[in-house]
Amino acid sequence: MIKILHYALGLPPVNTGGLAKQPENIMVRQVANGNEVSLVYPGNISIDRELKIIKNKSFNNIKVYEINNPISATLLSGEHDPKVSLKHMGFNIYTDFLKTIEVNIIHIHTLVNLDEEFISAANKMDIKIIFTAHDYFEICPKVKTIGSGVKTCTECGNGEKCVICNR
């Protein structure tokens, strides 16, 4: 039995489409194969902005955890204040969480709202990480690759035009 933690945007019915369905299909199959599977997803932002990881109700024998007050990312309008949204939130909180659930491997399905300290904590604990991209966020923070002026972006100029688009 392998203990697998998935990082994705959430589960149906709250999240729909391929970003939710593909990780769900993988997790359900892993449970059917006798593995212990958990999901952690970026959740709500509260006024206190204190990072917390809370256990939610299980889904199809998948343990579900929510990161309250994750780093934030705007999916369609780019990032306007990276100093706030990419603020380091709590290496020790992620380390404690990973120690508690004792996973062997982490499967990351998206980089949206993923705190680099989560990855740093996993690396420090020698937890293997797999990454698969199910969206365009890794290529373009606007996800839809829509350039400034609401035109489809066809040439990013090695990222130079991304700076203009994300202002």
UniProtKB/TrEMBL annotation:
The highest taxon in the source lineage is Bacteria
What protein is this chain from?
Glycosyltransferase subfamily 4-like N-terminal domain-containing protein
Organism annotation: Clostridium estertheticum
